[in-house]
């Protein structure tokens, strides 16, 4: 009996020290995601097309969250949402070029280049290219959807968009983005579905998706409804793994309560790859 007790104590202590051992993280900032020749040919690319990598120093093959900031494709700065810190995931926070210095589809091309960088380099930061999730808020959610649904952008980098482990747009347009419509001289209240709309690229073989918006009465004009229509069309084509969540009590500023849902989605999808 004494031996059993001593053994149990040793087991508990060993597990306590494993649990108590905190994962340490490192932040590497302002890494360019285009090749040097491209950077040197354009000052604005050299200024904006950079990303930060926040990663656990101990461990390996961690899931990666590629995060695109919002700001209507006209403003904003790369950042890591607080809720993604110290959560066992790598975060790749991306800057991209913006209107009016550039016009569509430059924003989407930059987003695709950043995702391609993650696939090609994330193993250096203890990540796995099999566990790359693409997300972002508002304009960032739109970019995440476009990169994952229109396969042509990642194809230019010899990467199949279906390798993405999951897409999690936060309150992103599923119609053509209002800044792109503005560039075409179209009013923001006139919805357009062309090749620059995620809705245009509905397909049943797209990566798993978690769609999150704020409450339909508090969101930006029609954001919940257009997302709900996208969800319905994906179900019509029998996409096997898509979910829509509406956050009651929150409007367009819904990142804080959405991040735990993202992390749970990452956890569940990652289990499927292991």
From TrEMBL:
It comes from the Bacteria. Keywords: Hydrolase. This is Alpha/beta hydrolase.
